[in-house]
């Protein structure tokens, strides 16, 4: 019993020591001419070395190719790309395999849209894509856009040790998923990932791609059941014990194991549910009105309460959100019989929510991207700097 207790204590402490020695790296950098000759290029006419790596210009698209390192599929756990994509539209990682005629037989693609300027370290956890990259033999990096002085620093291949992977599995199991719009229909449940990098905590896509813990529990219980059966046969055949007694004790152990897994699973899911309820309580129910936020909707429920009195005596109104879904339908439901207009403007009441490109100028006109779209009017009520109710006649 003491050994079992120590085993579970060790499991609890494993994440604390998962950063110990055991991580190794192989890096393809750009420090000398030999590093450039290791690659094949397409769409890149000239390039030069600098302290930032390989620097080049792009007109539309440039691609770099290189064979994957030896033992890639057996030992590499993650890829990290380091580059500065300032001015580009997208950087894409490709892993490819080819048939005998030289045509692409398998292609794995991950695209990274450029959303900000400056250096980027793009981490790719291969544990989530093992089936997709199976059999690939060449790595390619594609730069798309029209830019000058794009720099590509390195490709790093990361290998984690056994303790890092065990720690990552434990952490990913306890990676609690927040309430999402799809939660009403789907509960992903806990997942298991051996990736010890920064992907832990990115719950949304990890829950979709990682392996469900159900696979481990079901396989484990099945193997335990077969083990009990073989032990039972041994007890009856070799030791002469009565079958009824052996059957009762084996069933008791098997059902006890199922109950233990069930309770452990229920504790895990109950923890997730209670954590989300507590989060809702602090961020929405108990929070002051000026700070109330509800999950992915933010302050929209409070904005609806604010806007409703201004829409009581109108047939319809114009709406501008930072994105249409799900706000348009929710506002239409909450303000009935007044209806938001989905077509060209025709009403003089304007509901603006979370728009940084809309304001009212000194003459009282509503502006969209700096251009007036109404005659001089008035702000009926202001919710915050980016949300307000305006009344004014539309001018095409």
Q: Can you tell me about this structure?
A:
This protein has 396 residues and is α+β, with helices and mostly antiparallel strands. It folds into 3 domains: 24-159, Jelly Rolls, CATH 2.60.120; 213-285; 295-391. It contains 10 helices and 21 strands. A hairpin with a 2-residue loop joins β3 and β4 (53-58). Mean pLDDT is 88; it is low at 1-8 and 15-20.
Q: Please give the count of helices.
A: 10
Fourth-level CATH superfamily of the largest domain: Galactose-binding domain-like
Q: How does the helix and strand content classify structurally?
A: alpha+beta
Largest sheet: 6 strands, antiparallel
Helix proportion: 25-40%
* Termini Cα gap: 80 Å
Shape: flat
Q: Output the CATH topology of the largest domain.
A: Jelly Rolls
Q: State the low-pLDDT regions, or none.
A: 1-8, 15-20
The whole-number mean of residue pLDDT values reads: 88
Count up the domains. 3
Highest-level CATH class of the largest domain: Mainly Beta
How large a portion of the residues is in β-strands, by DSSP E?
25-35%
How many strand elements? 21
Q: What CATH architecture of the largest domain do you see?
A: Sandwich
Q: Taking Cα atoms only, what radius of gyration do you get, to the nearest Å?
A: 29 Å
């Amino acid at each position: 019993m003491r050994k079992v207790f120590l085993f579970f204590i060790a499991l609890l402490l494993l994440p604390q020591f998962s950063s110990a020695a055991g991580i190794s790296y192989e890096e393809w950098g750009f420090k000398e001419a030999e590093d450039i000759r290791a690659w094949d290029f397409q769409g890149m006419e000239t390039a030069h070395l600098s302290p930032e790596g390989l620097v080049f210009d792009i007109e539309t698209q440039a691609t770099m190719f290189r064979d994957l390192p030896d033992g890639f599929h057996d030992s590499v756990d993650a890829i990290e790309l380091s580059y500065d994509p300032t001015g580009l539209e997208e950087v894409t990682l490709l892993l490819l395999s080819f048939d005998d005629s030289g045509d692409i037989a398998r292609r794995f693609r991950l695209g990274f849209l450029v959303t900000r300027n400056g250096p980027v370290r793009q981490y790719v956890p291969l544990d989530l894509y093992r089936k997709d990259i199976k059999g690939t033999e060449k790595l390619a990096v594609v730069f798309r856009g029209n830019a000058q002085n794009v720099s590509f620093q390195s490709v790093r291949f990361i290998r984690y040790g056994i303790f890092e992977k065990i720690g990552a599995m434990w952490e990913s199991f306890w990676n609690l998923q927040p309430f999402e719009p799809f939660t009403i229909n789907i509960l992903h449940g806990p997942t298991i990932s051996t990736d010890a990098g920064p992907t832990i905590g990115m719950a949304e896509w990890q829950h979709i791609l990682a392996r469900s813990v159900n696979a481990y529990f079901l396989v484990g219980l099945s193997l335990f059941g077969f083990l009990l059966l073989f032990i039972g046969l041994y007890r009856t055949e070799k030791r002469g014990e009565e079958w009824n007694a052996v059957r009762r004790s084996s069933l008791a152990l098997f059902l006890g194991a199922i109950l233990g897994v069930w309770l452990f699973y229920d504790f895990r899911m109950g923890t997730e549910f209670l954590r989300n309820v507590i989060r809702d309580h602090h961020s929405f129910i108990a929070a002051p009105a000026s700070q109330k936020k509800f999950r992915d909707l933010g302050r929209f429920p409070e904005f609806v309460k604010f806007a409703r009195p201004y829409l009581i005596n109108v047939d319809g109104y114009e709406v501008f959100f930072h994105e249409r879904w799900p706000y348009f339908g929710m506002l239409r439901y909450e303000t009935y019989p007044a209806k938001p207009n989905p077509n060209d403007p025709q009403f003089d009441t304007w509901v603006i929510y979370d728009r940084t490109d809309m304001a009212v100028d000194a003459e009282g006109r509503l502006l969209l991207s700096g251009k007036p779209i109404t005659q001089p009017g008035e702000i009926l009520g202001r919710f915050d700097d980016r949300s307000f109710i305006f009344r004014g006649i539309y001018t095409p």
